[in-house]
Amino acid sequence: MSQSSIFAQTVWGHWQSLLWTSNAAWTLSELWIFARDLRAVRGQDADRSSRLLILLAIAVSIGTAIWCVDRFPFAKLPDGESGAVRFASGLGLMWIGIALRLCAVVTLGALFRTRVVLQEDHQLVTRGVYARLRNPSYTGVLVTVFGQGLTLGNWLALVICVGGVLAALAWRIHVEEQALRGRFGDAYEAYARRSWALLPPIW
């Protein structure tokens, strides 16, 4: 084996280690977020199975995307230098997405739940990452999944990875915003007019 081949394999091994580390960080952050739900709260459950849909969408979309990588070589993205840049960008986006979601959770504090629950003392939070973005935690999820898709090196896998999760998040946003409009009325409408739902400046 040539020295260049050994070097390439070594570099690729390091990239894969970074991907495993990124996925581990994502998993641990989500476990922490879900653990916060163990404390009971008083309020109205308005989830309409949206949490379950998101969990299934992430698992099925990423699983299907990984399955597609080797089975649809026509969709393979270029390797080499551009491939390395794409992979590094994917890892970077994963960490940005994780950080954004955690920032959203910390900003909401006790009001953040993985289910849509209108708590008895619910407040409309419009500060920090919520100032211009109504659902930064969902944006964080989408950015993380997009980064994961980029690391797969297959455009079809990327579309499947992002598309399934985006559809589930769209339903969750619809459910959540209906509940918040019902609770806060005109105040929420005014907030919605000056902010983006998920993807500035698209939506």
Structure notes:
α1 (3-35) packs parallel to α3 (80-108), α2 runs antiparallel to α5 and α4 runs antiparallel to α5 (155-184). This protein has a two-stranded antiparallel sheet with strand order 1-2. 68% of the residues lie in helices and 3% in strands. The chain has a single domain, classed as Four Helix Bundle (Hemerythrin (Met), subunit A) (Up-down Bundle), CATH 1.20.120. With 203 residues, the chain is an all-alpha fold. The model is unreliable at 1-9 (pLDDT under 50).
Kindly list the characteristics that best describe this protein.
203 residues, mainly alpha, Four Helix Bundle (Hemerythrin (Met), subunit A), two-stranded antiparallel ribbon, 2 strands, elongated, disordered N terminus
Q: What does the oligomeric state look like here?
A: single chain
What composes the largest sheet?
2 strands, antiparallel
Measured distance between first and last alpha carbons: 51 Å
Strand and helix order: HEHHEHHH
CATH topology: Four Helix Bundle (Hemerythrin (Met), subunit A)
Average pLDDT score: 92
- What is the architecture at the second tier of CATH? Up-down Bundle
Number of helices: 6
Strand content: under 5%
The level of helicity is 55-70%
Shape: elongated
Compute the number of structural domains.
Answer: 1
Q: What structural category characterises the helix and strand content?
A: mainly alpha
Q: Rg from C-alpha positions?
A: 19 Å
Number of strands: 2
Low-confidence stretches: 1-9
